[in-house]
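The passage that follows is intended for readers who have already worked through the single-chain material. We present the inputs for a multi-component assembly, then the predicted structure in tokenized form, and finally a short commentary. You are encouraged to pause after the input and sketch how you expect the pieces to fit together before reading on.
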Amino acid sequence: PTVARDRLRIAIQKSGRLAEPARALLASCGLSWRESRDRLFCYGETLPVDLLLVRDDDIPGLIADGVCDLGVVGRNVLLEQDAGRRGDGRASAFREWRALGFGSCRLALAVPEGWEWQGAAQLAGKRIATSYPALLSQWLVAQGVAADVVLLSGSVEIAPRLGQAEAICDLVSSGATLAANQLKPVQTVIESEAVLAGPIGGFDDVRGELADLLLRRLDGALRIRH
Ligand code: PRT
Ligand code: ZN
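Having made your guess, compare it with the prediction:
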């Protein structure tokens, strides 16, 4: 996709945890939009910076395909999809440009409360349920542990009770969901928060200047918040 474009297109989550904070942060950078009737596309008014409202899981691929220039997504999603691509022998096609300071959580291994945790070796030969197979597999390789990764797209925390797995690897913020399922976090795989994601390189048309302007304003807005 080498078509020169004169507007910047940013993908954000349509609904969910990151939707409102992402929009509010971009608005605090002086952006405003006119919403389309289908509410999937918001046309930039104060600056030529448009929004595309999508599922968070689609954001890295939209950047890789050049459909969107930038995106706001959890680092957990970005790293998982990057690890998945590289596992398939493909090159990296997106990276983290800025950490945004909201949507904090961690991808953690959790085991039944009754286990006396002695370290990663305890997971050898066990089944671990997760929605993050590439990051979990990478972590297991780094630990030198052979375990079975059971891929579930949701409700990972009930897998041990259902007998689908002995342990899980899932996002944790307050820890209430783990506790409600008699599980305890024992190891952090990655620390996550919402990030501004973009291509590996930059843009070679006017989008480069728009992105620079946005980054300057974003850095100012992030400094004020912290
Ligand atoms: O519809 P779409 O696909 O866009 O949304 P989604 O349902 O996939 O994502 P969403 O909105 O749930 O989460 C978006 C992003 O928010 C994630 O990718 C993370 O980067 C971030 N985030 C921050 C979290 C959490 N905190 C979090 N707690 N995402 C999910 N959770 C889950 C967690 O897995 C647990 O099951 O929330 C549950 C409650 O957590 P506790 O520990 O507070 O009980
Ligand atoms: Zn999602």
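Commentary: The first strand starts at residue 8 and ends at 13. The chain has a mean pLDDT of 96. How closely did your sketch match?
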